[in-house]
C-alpha cells in the first residue's frame, strides 16, 4: 500500500494539500521533500495554528480548503481522519489519501523516559488510519477509564466535573475489571486507555487495574493521570516500567505538593512519563440546561474538542468525560441514547453490540447532554487553572428512579 500511495502522490496532476500542521505533519513534510513530492498547501482544524507558518506554508482552515484549492489531493496526517474526511466532503472534495501507511517503517526508537511524543503520534496515526481504511474493524482510538471520583484537589473549573461530587467514591475493582474485559471482548483494537478520576492514584487498587490493562493484547498503550500529590510505592515501580505504560503528571505548582519527590522517584525508577504545565483552562465546567435549538447543539458537538474522548464509566460508554460525569452526578436526566451500556444483558449478540458501538462512535450528530454543556471548542473563553473551592459546587439533580 505504501508503494501505491507514493506513486499516486508522485504522479498527481493536482495540488497536494497536507492536512495537519502537527507532529505527524512535520514528518510527512520532510518525507515528501526528500522524495521530491511538492506540497502546495497545509490545512488544519485548530484555531491555534491557523494563520501560522508551517515549513513555509501559511496554515489555512480545513473547512476552507476548496476556496484556496478547488481540486486538490489531500494528504491526511491527523488522527481524527473521519472529521477531516467529513469536512472535505462538505466542500465537494473526495480525493484524499490516509498518510498512515506512508509512516510504516520509520525508526521509532525511544531513548528517554520523558516520552517521545513523535513516536506515540506516529504510532497512533498508523494504527488509526489502518483501522479507518478497514471499516469492518471496531477500532477505538482512545478510551478514558474512570476508576475514581476522588481527587486531592477541588478545582472549581475542572472539565471532568470533580468539583460537584459531594461524597466522591472509588469504583470497585471488580466493576472496573469486568468493564475492561467486556470492552476488550467487543473491540478489535484499542490504541490507548487513559486511567482517570479524579486522580488515578487516589484509588489504592490502581495497580490491579493497570495490571489487567497491561495484560490485554488489544490495548496498545496505557496512560495514568495524576497531579503530583501522591508518590507511588517502590514496589509499584515494576508495573509502571512496563513499555505500554505512560505516567502523565500535571504540575500545578504548590498544589502539586509532592512534585519534587515524584520527579525524583520517576528518575530513580526509570518510569516513562510526561509532566505538563498549564497556563489556563477553557471555561467549560458549568452544568445547566440551555434549551438550545437542535441546530445549535449540533454546532456545539461539531466544534467540541472532547467529542472523541470516549469515556467508560461503570460499564457505560460515553462520547466525553463531561457526559460521563454529568450522568454519574445525576446532573442530567437518564438519556440512554447518549451512551452505550456495554454490560447490557439484553444484548446477547456480540455483533449487535459491536454495531451499536460503531454507530455511537461514528454516526451521531450530537448528544442530548450537549444541551447541558457550555461547549468545549478548541479555543474559547479561558479561566485560571486549578482555582480551588472549599466545598462542592451546587447543581440541579435529576434523581434516578
TrEMBL record:
Cell membrane as UniProt keyword: no
Looking at the record, the residues that make up the Radical SAM core domain are 146-242
Protein name listed in UniProt:
Radical SAM protein
GO molecular function terms attached to this record: catalytic activity; iron-sulfur cluster binding; metal ion binding
Q: Which organism is it from?
A: Pseudothauera nasutitermitis
Q: Keyword annotations for this protein?
A: Iron, Iron-sulfur, Metal-binding, S-adenosyl-L-methionine
Source organism, top-level taxon? Bacteria
UniProt-listed InterPro entries: Aldolase_TIM, Radical_SAM_PqqE_MftC-like, rSAM, rSAM_sf, SAM-dependent_MTases_sf
Q: State its cofactor.
A: [4Fe-4S] cluster
CDD domains, per this entry?
Radical_SAM
Amino acid at each position: 500500500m505504501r508503494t501505491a500511495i507514493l506513486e499516486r502522490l508522485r504522479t498527481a496532476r493536482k495540488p497536494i494539500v497536507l492536512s495537519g500542521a502537527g507532529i505527524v505533519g512535520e514528518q510527512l513534510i520532510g518525507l515528501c521533500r526528500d522524495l521530491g513530492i511538492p506540497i502546495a498547501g497545509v490545512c488544519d482544524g485548530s484555531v491555534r495554528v491557523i494563520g501560522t507558518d508551517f515549513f513555509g506554508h501559511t496554515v489555512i482552515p480545513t473547512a476552507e480548503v476548496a476556496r484556496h484549492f478547488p481540486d486538490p489531493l489531500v494528504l491526511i496526517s491527523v488522527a481524527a481522519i473521519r472529521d477531516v474526511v467529513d469536512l472535505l466532503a462538505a466542500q465537494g472534495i473526495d480525493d484524499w489519501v490516509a498518510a498512515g501507511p506512508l509512516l510504516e517503517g520509520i525508526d521509532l526508537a525511544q531513548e528517554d523516559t520523558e516520552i517521545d511524543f513523535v513516536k506515540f503520534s506516529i504510532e497512533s496515526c498508523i494504527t488509526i488510519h489502518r483501522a479507518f481504511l478497514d471499516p469492518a474493524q471496531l477500532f477505538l482510538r482512545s478510551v478514558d477509564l474512570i476508576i475514581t471520583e476522588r481527587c486531592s484537589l477541588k478545582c472549581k473549573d475542572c472539565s471532568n466535573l470533580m468539583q460537584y461530587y459531594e461524597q466522591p467514591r472509588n469504583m470497585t475493582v471488580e466493576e472496573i475489571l469486568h468493564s475492561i474485559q467486556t470492552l476488550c471482548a467487543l473491540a478489535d483494537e484499542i490504541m490507548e486507555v487513559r486511567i482517570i478520576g479524579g486522580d488515578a492514584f487516589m484509588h489504592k487498587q490502581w495497580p490491579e487495574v493497570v495490571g489487567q490493562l497491561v495484560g490485554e493484547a488489544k490495548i496498545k498503550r496505557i496512560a495514568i493521570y495524576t497531579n503530583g500529590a501522591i508518590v507511588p510505592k517502590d514496589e509499584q515501580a515494576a508495573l509502571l516500567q512496563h513499555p505500554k505504560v505512560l505516567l502523565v503528571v500535571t504540575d500545578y505548582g504548590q498544589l502539586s505538593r509532592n512534585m519534587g519527590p515524584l520527579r525524583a522517584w520517576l528518575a530513580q525508577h526509570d518510569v516513562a512519563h510526561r509532566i505538563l504545565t498549564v497556563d489556563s483552562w477553557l471555561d467549560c465546567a458549568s452544568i445547566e440546561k440551555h434549551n438550545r435549538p437542535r441546530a445549535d447543539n449540533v454546532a456545539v458537538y461539531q466544534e467540541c474538542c472532547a467529542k472523541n474522548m470516549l469515556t467508560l464509566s461503570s460499564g457505560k460508554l460515553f462520547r466525553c468525560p463531561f457526559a460521563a460525569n454529568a450522568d454519574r452526578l445525576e446532573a442530567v436526566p437518564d438519556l440512554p441514547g447518549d451512551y452505550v451500556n456495554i454490560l447490557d444483558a439484553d444484548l446477547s449478540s456480540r455483533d449487535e453490540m459491536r454495531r451499536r458501538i460503531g454507530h455511537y462512535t461514528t454516526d451521531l450528530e450530537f448528544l442530548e447532554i450537549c444541551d447541558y454543556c457550555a461547549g468545549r471548542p478548541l479555543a474559547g473563553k479561558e479561566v485560571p487553572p486549578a482555582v480551588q473551592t472549599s466545598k462542592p459546587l451546587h447543581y440541579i439533580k435529576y434523581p434516578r428512579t
